[in-house]
Design brief:
By secondary structure, this protein is an alpha+beta fold. It folds into two domains: about 110 residues; about 170 residues, Superoxide dismutase, copper/zinc binding domain (Immunoglobulin-like), CATH 2.60.40.200. It has four helices and twelve strands, in the order H-E-E-E-E-E-E-E-E-E-H-E-H-E-E-H. Strands 9-3-2-1-12 form a five-stranded antiparallel β-sheet, with no helix packed on it. Strands 5-10-11 form a three-stranded antiparallel β-sheet, with no helix packed on it. A two-stranded antiparallel ribbon has the order 4-8. The longest helix has about 60 residues. The N terminus and C terminus are likely disordered.
Length: about 290
């Protein structure tokens, strides 16, 4: 009888040890699940943050105003040498110019009153030459008197001169309140002209001419021949870009939500199995104690 009692005590001790080991294993498994959950949450947060940052960066570019009109500059032999774009920005019109294949130095640059770019054509005044059908400078205000008029606003089409580099290229960006969408795109249209010489803006000091600049200088600023021309044409509607951004954001959000739901489901299933195993082990130990 003593021997059997010792056997039972030993068995009970082993059972208690097994219970401790089982509970420890369950605890470790629980910690492992917590680590998996934390890792999944971290991954989901990182992915979501990355997607949001990318969308924000894309959105910044899409928020920039689109040009409402552009002009492709071409020479008399129909060679394209550059582009000019017009964008409404802060109550003004921003003009962006990029050209190439020109002679170095300053070149007259104006907006003219008629949207025609015809080589060997005739002006309204009867003068003939390349791009003469584009007419004179775009005046805008009916009271504007003379090109570069120092005592008034001058022509609406008076633009800064292009400074052409040694490699024949030139870029320029400026803003003006003289131009408007309606003025550039009226019934007659308008055209950009690049001239062969520098523009003096009709600034002739009295020491050179007591009577001031003559009629031709007041018209053109003595900028010379017309070497390139581009008809100002209305640009495309920018609404399509906003629609594309909306669709991309919606798709990205749906994919992120779906991935997060899948990861949560996969993490929850092992936790349920471990809880069931722990309950089963505890019940078994209780039954053995009751029998003993």
């Amino acid at each position: 009888m003593r021997h059997r009692k010792n056997h039972r005590i030993t068995a009970a001790t082993l059972g208690a040890g097994a219970l401790v080991l089982g509970l420890t294993a369950c605890a470790d498994a629980g910690n492992g699940d917590a680590d998996v959950n934390n890792a999944a949450d971290t991954t989901t947060t990182t992915d979501t943050t990355s997607a949001t940052t990318s969308e924000s960066a894309a959105g910044d570019g899409d928020d920039a105003p689109e040009p409402f009109a552009t002009a492709s500059l071409r020479t008399a032999d129909d060679s394209e040498i550059g582009t000019v774009s017009f964008t409404e920005n802060g109550g003004m019109v921003q003009v962006d110019v990029e050209v190439s294949d020109l002679e170095p130095g300053f070149r007259g640059f104006h907006v003219h009153s008629t949207g025609l770019c015809e080589p060997d054509s005739e002006s309204p005044d009867g003068d003939t030459g390349d791009f003469m059908s584009a007419g004179g400078h775009l005046t805008g205000d009916a009271d504007a008197e003379g090109h570069g008029n120092p005592s008034g606003t001058g022509h609406a089409g008076d633009m800064p001169s292009l400074l052409v580099n040694d490699d024949g290229t030139a870029t320029m960006t400026f803003s003006t309140d003289r131009l408007t969408r309606e003025l550039l795109l009226d019934d007659d249209g308008s055209a950009i002209i690049v001239h062969s010489d520098a523009d003096n803006f009709a600034h002739i000091p009295e020491r050179y001419a007591e009577d001031g600049p003559d009629e031709d200088t007041l018209k053109t600023g003595d900028a010379g021949d017309r070497t390139a021309c581009g008809v100002v044409e209305e640009g495309e509607d920018a609404g399509a870009g906003a629609a594309t951004t909306s669709e991309t954001t919606s798709d990205t959000t749906s994919e992120t939500t779906s991935a997060t739901t899948s990861e949560t489901s996969a993490t929850s299933e092992p936790a349920e199995d471990d809880d069931a195993a722990t309950t089963s082990a505890a019940t078994s130990v209780t039954n053995e104690d009751d029998e003993n």
